[in-house]
Design a protein that fits this description.
The complex is a heterodimer of chains A (887) and B (132).
Chain A lengths: L25 H7 L10 H16 L6 H12 L7 H14 L3 H15 L4 H14 L2 H15 L4 H14 L4 H4 L3 H8 L4 H15 L3 H13 L5 H18 L11 H7 L5 H12 L6 H15 L4 H17 L1 H4 L3 H7 L5 H14 L5 H12 L4 H17 L4 H12 L5 H17 L4 H12 L5 H14 L10 H10 L2 H17 L4 H11 L5 H15 L8 H9 L6 H10 L44 H10 L12 E2 L3 E2 L7 E9 L3 E10 L4 E14 L4 E6 L1 E4 L5 E8 L8 E13 L12 E6 L3 E3 L5 E2 L6 H8 L5 E9 L3 H12 L2 E2 L12 E10 L3 E11 L4 E10 L2 H13 L1
Antiparallel strand pairs in A: 1-3, 2-3, 3-4, 4-8, 5-7, 5-9, 6-8, 9-10, 9-11, 12-15, 13-17, 14-15, 15-16, 16-17
Helix pairs in contact in A: 1-2, 2-4, 3-4, 4-6, 5-6, 6-8, 7-8, 8-11, 10-11, 11-13, 12-13, 13-15, 14-15, 15-16, 15-17, 16-17, 17-20, 19-20, 20-22, 21-23, 22-23, 22-24, 23-24, 23-25, 24-25, 25-26, 26-28, 27-28, 28-29, 28-30, 28-31, 29-30
Chain B lengths: L1 E8 L4 E6 L4 H18 L9 E5 L2 E8 L2 E7 L5 H19 L5 H6 L1 H12 L10
Helix pairs in contact in B: 2-4
Classes of the chains: A alpha+beta (887), B alpha+beta (132).
Family (chain A): Belongs to the COPG family.
Keywords (chain A): Cytoplasm, Cytoplasmic vesicle, ER-Golgi transport, Golgi apparatus, Membrane, Protein transport, Repeat, Transport
GO molecular function, one term (chain A): structural molecule activity
């Protein structure tokens, strides 16, 4: 620890070079702590021992329960000393030792005495210690002292009480809330810090009462708040009120905007920045509102304080995501930050410039970034790579410069996540910019020649296999792929074999040479490689083992698996080896939605599905068996889809009901799962009366009531409706649970003879378009899209209006359609202004349907969407458009 | 939320630390991260020159004072400017206690006073009533 130091110091010549804690050891310090028991206390000696104890604790040393208790009891004796310094050390060590509830009582009276002491320092610290170690019981005893302390004329004492109140609000809120009046008085204190603490506590007390917070903000914004810290808090609370009010004043202005604007002229930089940030984060902020905030942030960019520069560039970076044009005035200032010593600032400046730059500045920006990249850590580099990707998609004509840049940094040193980010970016650019394909594939080929990451090599090889054969000269990629077979590990070699096969399948001219290469692979040392080579040689060689035609071969090589992997895994686990081989057609294709969330009252049991038959591997099979066993529904045909259970009652209700919608071609059956949660009641003849006034296409044809519903024993009742065959009819139903209720003696279990008719209102339910689509994904969307063909394609554009974000718009459309997102496209990257989402499903009538959604969002958050639908049936494509148009 | 305040020697040894709401298993990571941050950036830095960084949506403001490196870590309402204010208060307290930018020896000699001052700072007490 004590190392000789190079710096000169006037004291150095006089001091011996030693540490006071050298060789310190817990056992000996605990021995030394016996001085606390001396009748004649030496304050200086005791302070030294406490210092050593603190040092041990700060070095990670821990005391056993026994040791801590002994030290604590010894320390309490130090209250006898009147020495001020020692008393403060005592307060500190008590907090560090954190005595248990039964130990606290020893020191309570001493601390309470100190709370009423004439010495301000004693009062303040005693309050802090007591509030740290006390529980609710003691708190009620000392409450009046704390209330007095809050309005104490000494601001140290007042602050101590207020800050303690903030901590205590977490554990004893009902007690602290009683101090509102005193805290309110402290908000008007002339001492800045007291005002700050009082405002924080008052807000926390009232935070669940929107009106109270609004009144607090209104009164304070009109008055004078002296403390800059309190001003910052007030700005944040004002932002919260603006967000929650959501309405403009009669003059059309945003409420409290004038206050925020006035804070931009405050003398404290902290307040100015807080106001600027609050303005930039306003919902639906206009350019006119933004301008003064961006002006002050621009000034901060040139500050000599790195904290201010960082704060400003970070805020401008966020603004650039939604209002890039508003930030362009700051471009010159930000360009000078690229060479800032602080790499966080430099990275933020670059990523902001990448968002706000125009097409003509791209080349200049790339030159500046090239030198910068070697100076920063991988996590910053990934941020820059993602920003470059977005820039390239924004300016596709600049793909050459940006692709060259990405490929050059791909060749440099870097970790796995960094390289993956670059590869993903190149793949996205190849996918979205057709002109960039050849150069992008070439860069990827060069990369895999010297790639240390197996995951990336296999990812690129797979991509090459899909895209390479479609280029103008596929043969130039063969060398790179075959080199992997010779030089790499088994995983990469196997992947390369598959890629070679894909080339052979699609490019007839290359087939003979591919055969030669694949035959060499038959001698590989790895089983997987040899197996794949054998399989592909037979497949492409046309021995009939995989289909008869070229199309069959291509479907095998490029086609999607057609079943979800999770379902396949479950079925394979359940398969028992027998003479009958495993049949992939038996794997259910529907992707299971998330199960219904648990009811809010954890004490109550959720409404069960009743006695479902055991054995079937999927829920839909179970439903099918259940419904076909009911004579009224057995003639409805094949069950298309069953929805997830949807609650029709709130938590903590007497009767809990959820509904499952079973969709057939010409019928819909509603299954109501009911649970009686009242032990003193037995329900009989339970049925649901459904009003279909708002569902004109539906007509009720059958119902099956539930004979008996005892306590805590779930049961089902059904109602079936007829609808036009093959038509995705929609409608809203209001529901009433009707039953006869009989009293039950809980002690004896006897039920009354007579019952009373009663009814119970349930929530409405809707049949939606999404109910007619099964979520069936595809693993390779592009192939599936191309194989479906454009004959039944329908394309149209829609305006979705103003939305909170692109993510919200994408999720809303996915929910309306009820289709399965593919290839992870349901996730919208942060800061995106455009996004493509791929959906797949099966429409009622077993028609496969694929959807391509292209979203774009502009400055005022108006979202436009282009919908392209391909299906096996043109009426289905039309139906999907109809759903969106009316949704 | 103010997550941590840490004092270390310029060589990397931890002198004083305070964590709030940080699980024990994460503290080791924070210690090594902060010490490395200081080792990379504080060489040749001037006394009281503020540095700022962010790591996993958390902000760090740090500086050097004599032989001691001081780090404050926070998130949410304790953004970089609030942390800078906290750090300035801590620096001011340190200067009150040690008079000059402390050497390691002086720091360890005043260890108890420094712990008290840190406690005062973190509990929001102003400088007037602290004793020298």
């Amino acid at each position: 620890m004590a190392q000789p130091l190079a710096k000169k110091d006037d004291d150095r010549d006089d001091e011996a070079e030693y540490s006071p804690f050298i060789g310190i050891e817990k056992g000996s310090v605990l021995q030394e702590a016996r001085v606390f028991n001396d009748p004649q206390l030496d304050p200086r000696r005791c302070s030294q021992v406490i210092t050593k104890l603190l040092y041990l604790l700060n070095q990670g040393e821990s005391f056993t329960k026994v040791e801590a208790t002994e030290v604590f009891f010894s320390v309490t004796k130090l209250f006898q000393s009147k020495d001020l310094g020692l008393r403060r050390m005592v307060y500190l060590i008590i907090k560090e030792l954190s005595p248990s509830a039964d130990e606290v009582i020893i020191v309570t009276s001493s601390l309470m005495k100190d709370m009423n002491s004439k010495t301000d320092m004693y009062r303040a610290n005693a309050i802090r210690v007591l509030c740290r170690i006390t529980d609710g019981t003691l708190l009620t005893q000392i409450e009046r002292y704390l209330k007095q302390a809050i309005v104490d004329k000494n601001h140290v004492v007042a602050s101590a009480a207020l800050v303690s109140g903030v901590h205590l609000l977490q554990t004893n809120p009902e007690i602290v809330k009683r101090w509102s009046n005193e805290v309110q008085e402290s908000v008007q204190s002339r001492a800045g810090l007291v005002q700050f603490h009082a405002l924080a506590l008052l807000h926390q007390i009232r935070q669940n009462d929107r009106l109270a917070v609004s009144k607090l903000v209104t009164s304070l914004t009109r008055g004078t708040v002296r403390s800059p810290l309190a001003q910052c808090l007030l700005i944040r609370y004002t932002s919260q009120v603006i967000r929650e009010s959501g309405q403009n004043t009669q003059t059309g202005e945003r409420p409290f905007y004038n206050y925020l604007d006035s804070c931009l002229r405050h003398k404290a930089e902290m307040v100015i920045f807080e106001a600027a940030r609050a303005i930039t984060e306003l919902s639906g902020v206009t350019n006119q509102e933004l301008t003064p905030a961006i002006t002050v942030l621009q000034l901060f960019l040139n500050s000599s304080k790195p904290v201010l520069r960082f704060a400003a560039v970070r805020t401008l970076n966020k603004v650039a995501m939604t209002h890039p044009m508003a930030v362009t005035n700051c471009n010159i200032d930000m360009e000078s930050l690229i060479s800032d010593q602080n790499r966080s600032i430099a990275t933020l400046a670059i990523t902001t410039l990448l968002k706000t730059g125009n097409e003509s500045s791209v080349d200049r920006l790339m030159k500046q970034i090239t030198n910068f990249m070697s100076d920063i850590a991988d996590e910053f580099k990934i941020v820059v790579v993602e920003a470059i990707r977005s820039l390239c998609l924004k300016f596709p004509l600049k793909y050459r410069a940006l692709m060259n840049f990405l490929s050059s940094i791909l060749r440099e040193e870097g970790g796995f996540e960094y390289k993956k980010a670059i590869v993903d970016s190149i793949v996205i650019l190849i996918r979205d910019i057709p002109e960039a394909k050849e150069s992008g594939l070439f860069h990827l080929c060069e990369f895999i020649e010297d790639c240390e990451f197996t995951y990336l090599s296999t990812q690129i090889l797979h991509f090459l296999g899909n895209e390479g054969p479609k280029t103008s000269d596929p043969s130039k990629y063969i060398r790179y792929i075959y080199n992997r077979v010779i030089l790499e590990n088994a995983t990469v070699r196997a992947s390369a074999v598959s890629t070679l096969a894909k080339f052979g399948a699609l490019v007839d001219s290359l087939k003979p040479r591919i055969f030669v290469l694949l035959r060499r692979c038959l001698f590989d040392s790895d089983d997987e490689v040899r197996d794949r080579a054998t399989l592909y040689l037979n497949t492409i060689g046309g021995d009939g083992s995989v289909g008869e035609t070229d199309k069959d071969v291509k479907d095998f090589l490029f086609g999607s698996l057609d079943v979800p992997l999770a379902n396949l895994e479950t079925c394979l686990k359940n398969y028992e080896p027998s003479e009958e081989s495993f049949d992939i057609d038996s794997v259910p294709k529907e992707v299971k939605s998330q199960p219904l969330a648990e009811k809010k009252a954890p004490g109550k049991k959720p409404a069960a599905l009743g006695a479902l038959p055991t054995g079937p591997t999927s829920t839909i099979d179970a439903y099918e068996k259940l419904l076909s066993s009911i004579p009224e529904f057995s003639g409805f045909g094949q069950l298309f889809k069953s929805s997830v259970p949807m609650e029709l009652t709130e938590a903590e209700t007497e009767y809990s009901v959820n509904v499952v919608k079973h969709i057939y071609d010409g019928h819909v059956v509603f299954q109501f799962n009911c649970t009686n949660t009242i032990p003193e009641q037995l329900l009989e003849n339970v049925c649901v009366i459904m009003d279909a006034t708002e569902a004109e296409e539906f007509s009720e044809v059958a119902s099956k009531p539930l004979r008996s519903l005892p306590y805590d024993s779930p049961g089902q009742t059904f109602v079936a409706f007829e609808k036009p065959v093959g038509v995705p009819a929609v409608g809203k139903f209001s529901n009433m649970l009707k039953f006869i209720v009989k009293e039950v003696d809980p002690a004896t279990g006897e039920t009354d003879e007579d019952g009373v008719e009663d009814e119970y209102q349930l929530e409405d339910l809707e049949v939606l378009p999404a109910d007619y689509i099964l979520k069936v994904g595809v693993s390779n969307f592009r192939n599936a899209w191309e194989s479906m063909g454009p004959d039944n394609e329908r394309v149209d554009e829609y305006g979705l209006g103003a939305r909170e974000s692109l993510t919200e718009a994408v999720n809303a459309v996915i929910n309306i359609l009820g289709m399965q997102p593919c290839e992870g496209t349901e996730v919208v990257p942060n800061n995106s202004r455009s996004h493509t989402c791929l959906l797949a499903g099966v429409f009622i009538g077993n028609a496969k349907v694929l959807v391509r959604l292209s979203f774009g969002i502009d400055g005022p958050k108006q979202v436009a969407m282009k919908l392209a639908v391909r299906s096996e049936d043109e009426t289905v494509s039309d139906a999907i458009h109809e759903i969106i148009a009316s949704g | 939320m103010l997550l941590a305040v840490l004092f270390s020697h310029t060589e990397g040894n931890i002198l004083v630390e305070r964590f709030h709401g940080v699980p024990t298993e994460e503290r080791l990571h924070w210690r090594s991260f902060l010490v490395k941050l200081g080792a990379d950036n504080l060489k040749g830095a001037k006394n009281e020159e503020l540095f700022v960084a962010s790591h996993k949506s958390v902000y760090i403001v740090y500086t050097v004072l004599g032989d001691a490196c001081i780090y404050v870590v926070g998130k949410d309402e304790y953004d970089e400017l609030a942390l800078a204010e906290v750090l300035l208060v801590i620096i001011s307290s340190m200067k009150d206690v040690c008079v000059k930018p402390p050497t390691e020896h002086r720091f360890l000699n005043k260890y108890g006073r420094i712990c008290l001052c840190l406690d005062d700072c973190l509990e929001g007490v102003t400088g007037e009533l602290r004793e020298r």
